[in-house]
Amino acid sequence: MDLTSEAAAGHRRAPPRTITRLLAAGAMDADLAGLVWLLAEGGVPLVVAGEPLAAAATAEGVMGMVTPTRGMDAGRPGLMPIDELARMEHGPDLARGRLLAAIITAGSLDELYRVLAAPPAALGEDEIRRLGVVLVQRAVEPGDRLRVVAAHYLRPVERDGHGHLQRRPPAVLATWDPRSDTFEHFAWGVTPELAIRVGRTQADLERLQARRSAFLHGLMHAGVTEPAELRLAMDRYRLEEQLERTAATNGMRHPAHDHQHGGQEPHA
To answer: Is the pLDDT at 49 greater than 80, yes or no?
Structure first.
């Protein structure tokens, strides 16, 4: 398998996709999208495993949350060959200005490991562990609907307090339940380490995930699915979040808070 050609083919030919279109189609839910948004923003790589065209479209929608100007335009996000992505040393600084995303034709996490361990990629287990979030998606019945059937977090090699190398197994972030056509979430079990990975406190990560998930859910229900209007909405959200961070740093309340409470302290 030519990993470079596979990524390039999906990159050129995938149909335009936005995160709200993915949500409206049921490919994933807002809770998972909000979490992946925070992780990708923090420099955690993203891999979408599935049929190349659909995988590239999903990667475009997800990464469009992180870099909307590039990810939602007529062009495609800068998908990397997956073997190159796995061999990179990642970090938030490296993530700025780059889309740490790749696609692979694989129907499960086990298949992804098998494909990448064999030629031409011939990756070692420690390299595969660098791939971060893996979304496994496929078409399901009835109606050939696209679903992210499992979301995994691949833990990188770590050192414990005594300097010993630790290789913990992948964590399941979410799975799709075919009986209810809904998603079950398990990220709560690894929230502390996810927060450390992206340089946030656990409380901050949980608060922002809930807020961003609600924001995305609201956009979907409002029918904000076209790239241009979604880009504007995302830009407004980013500005609001930035202003709140600045206000918090300076010990001030954001004007939206005063407007909400009529400029007075809320009653106890």
So the answer is: yes
Cα torsion 117, 60, 146, 176: sign: positive
Q: Dihedral through CA 201, CA 206, CA 208, CA 213, nearest 10?
A: 160
Cα angle value 65/66/70 (rounded, 5°):
90
Residue recorded with tokens 């956009």: 219
pLDDT of residue 212: 97
CATH number of 3-158+167-251: 3.40.50.300
Average pLDDT, rounded, for the chain: 84
CB 103 within 8 A of CB 47: yes
Q: Look up residue 234 and give its two tokens.
A: 């995302």
